[in-house]
Design goal:
By secondary structure, the chain is an alpha+beta fold. About 20% of the residues lie in helices and about 45% in strands. The chain starts with a helix and ends with a helix. The site of calcium ion has 9 residues, from loops.
Length: about 200
């Protein structure tokens, strides 16, 4: 009876795949403070796949100052970007500025290349960018947003640190778009699996 009930529930929920948008406030980024500032979003759902992370209204001069890291509620982290354009451990990085909404999504543009298009008077256009870090030789290293997949429910943390004095900035808010689990398609698959199992047992 319990298996039949599960099948009925899964059918009632349908099978569309969907994602939710989870949002939280931003704030100021403390100048020349390597520990950075944390900005939390309490995500009330367990998460399967993450579609994107977006920073809204992010303004900062000299992007090379910044390290931006997101950690999901299960404790897994990725960097959205790290000391852009800094090709040594002590380099100051690219002097271009931030001013807009920046969405980090797999298949997005190369942020280092975008920053390299101008100098201290250049504002990197808002839009879609690939998350990135630096490799062992301090070169651009693309990072997949999928590193944040499969999280328990709870607090997600955005850490932004500024690592050189003088240039400062802030942002308005940030968003996580992600699919909660168990999503209806998964429930439907589970129900159909249970039904198939029942049918096989009846034939045996
Ligand atoms: Ca600074």
């Amino acid at each position: 009876m319990k298996k039949l009930l599960l099948v009925a529930l899964a059918t009632a929920f349908g099978s569309s795949v969907f994602a939710n948008l989870y949002s939280g406030p931003g704030g100021g980024i403390p100048d020349s403070t390597p520990a950075g500032a944390n900005f939390l979003i309490n995500v009330p759902d367990a998460i399967g796949a993450v579609s994107f992370i977006r920073l809204n209204g992010l303004t900062h001069t000299w992007i090379g100052d910044l390290v931006v890291t997101v950690t999901n509620a299960s404790g897994n982290s990725i960097q959205l970007f790290q000391r852009v354009g800094s090709t040594t451990s002590t380099g100051l990085g690219d002097s271009s500025n931030l001013g807009g909404d920046y969405r980090f999504i797999d298949g997005g543009a190369n942020l280092w290349a975008a920053a390299a298009a101008g100098d201290t008077s250049f504002v990197i256009p808002g839009g879609d960018y690939q998350a990135s870090s630096r490799d062992a030789l301090f070169a651009y290293l693309p990072v997949s947003i999928s590193g944040l997949n499969n999280s328990v429910a709870g607090n997600w943390t955005l850490n932004i640190s500024d690592n050189a004095g003088g240039d400062t900035g802030a942002f308005n808010s940030w968003d996580i778009e992600a699919a909660p689990v168990p999503e209806p398609a998964t429930m439907a698959a589970l129900g159909m699996g249970a039904l198939a199992l029942l049918r096989r047992r009846k034939k045996a």
